[in-house]
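Chapter summary example.
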Amino acid sequence: MAKEFQETSVIKNDEPRLRADAKRNEEALLEAAKRVFARSGVDAPIREIASEAGVGLGTLYRRFPTRSDLVASVFRREVDACAEEAATLSKTSAPLEALTAWLMRYTHFLATKQGLAAALHSGDAAFSALPDYFRSRFEPALSGLMGKAVETGAIRTDIAPYDLLRAIGNLAVATGDDGPAHIERMVMLLIDGMRYKATKTP
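The structure predicted for these 202 residues follows.
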């Protein structure tokens, strides 16, 4: 009985370490997948991702049984990082500056995730919840920034956050050598339009 209790205690004491190791492996895999997808597309060899993360294939497949599971997790992680930056900018910059900076961050996110975005339309069930997740994270983030800008009279009051997200999404598909510069110019034009006839709220 004493031996059994001792073995059980060892297992329990190891659990926090095992959970921490699993979390580190997951983060390493997601970061590696982000880099590999950006470099080689979402169809890049899974072995390449595991190698870049410094883990074995078994570890990768235990956490992400299918490629679509991994793609969806990378996309969700990137959405979270972009959305959370809105709160940081709101605390460190004036309302219009924060809004402008975040819209540019969002634009860059869209422009560099074309491969991931294309995967969302493949019909794979693993991606079915992502469009709603995308909106649930970005719309509140942008709404908060726009609300503060409206209060200070920096932008007009009749713009819906989701309309602005969609407008920039449509712009972000521009390609060619001048694609990024063109997208940035058009987003700045949208921002200028938001400032037209702006009035401070009572």
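To summarize the output: DSSP finds nine helices and no strands in the chain.
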